[in-house]
Amino acid sequence: MEMILKRRSVREYKDEEIPSEVLMKVLEAASWAPSSKNSQPWEFIIIRDKEKLGKLANVRFWAFPIAKAPMAIAVIVDPRKSKRFLLDGACATMNLMLAARYHGLGTCWIADMNRKEVKEVLGVPEDLYVVTVTPIGYPKEFPKPTPRKPLREVVYLEKYGRNI
Ligand SMILES: Cc1cc2nc3c(=O)[nH]c(=O)nc-3n(C[C@H](O)[C@H](O)[C@H](O)COP(=O)(O)O)c2cc1C
């Protein structure tokens, strides 16, 4: 619960390397996500090359946080391995983000991207799907919490629309 509450989308990072054993822990957490029929349709690309980070960040406006971090991780899924490839990929990404937070790292789900261009930059085969490219690194600061709807607005009892 602490990690869930403390995770934030981080868009400004320190120029500080992530130790590789920490990075591997974070990726291991991603690989322990649930997936449809345990298909594990995911693969990950670690991106450290500044030129690549710059290119990925420039693909669309809201991709800018990628250029603010010392590295990024692309989460890729194979639609041939799972009918639910998007959901599986989202589960893996969420695990990754929470584990990153545990290690004091920030991340930011980037969806604002032209997937064709992203695939070109990273050499990802045409038939795979890029779920997200998240910057990852030590934050300049963790932003203030963003608001959440109160539970009474989103939780019902027994029937849609019946308040608790
Ligand atoms: C599916 C999805 C797509 C998102 N796309 C972007 C994005 O393209 N660029 C960005 O800066 N943040 C993006 N975000 C981050 C959201 O803006 C952020 O999660 C939301 O404002 C809540 O803030 P928090 O993550 O700090 O709790 C995305 C988040 C999700 C889950």
* Radius of gyration (Å): 17 Å
Q: Could you tell me the strand content as a percent range?
A: 5-15%
H/E element sequence: HHEHEHEHEH
- Oligomer type: single chain
Sheet with the most strands, sense and barrel status = 4 strands, antiparallel
Secondary structure layout:
Elements: H1 2-6, H2 20-31, E1 42-47, H3 50-57, E2 71-77, H4 85-102, E3 106-107, H5 115-122, E4 129-137, H6 151-154
Antiparallel strand pairs: 1-2, 2-4, 3-4
Helix pairs in contact: 2-4
Describe the 3D structure.
By secondary structure, the protein is of the alpha+beta class. The chain has a single domain (2-154), classed as NADH Oxidase (3-Layer(aba) Sandwich), CATH 3.40.109. The chain contains 6 helices and 4 strands; from the N terminus they run H-H-E-H-E-H-E-H-E-H. It has helices at residues 2-6, 20-31, 50-57, 85-102, 115-122, 151-154; strands at residues 42-47, 71-77, 106-107, 129-137. Helix 2 (20-31) runs antiparallel to helix 4. The longest helix has 18 residues, at 85-102. The mean pLDDT is 97. The structure holds flavin mononucleotide. Flavin mononucleotide binds at residues 8-9, 11, 62, 65, 108-112, 146.
Q: In a few lines, what is going on in this structure?
A:
The chain is α+β, with helices and mostly antiparallel strands and 164 residues long. The protein has helices at residues 2-6, 20-31, 50-57, 85-102, 115-122, 151-154; strands spanning 42-47, 71-77, 106-107, 129-137. Helix 2 (20-31) packs antiparallel against helix 4.
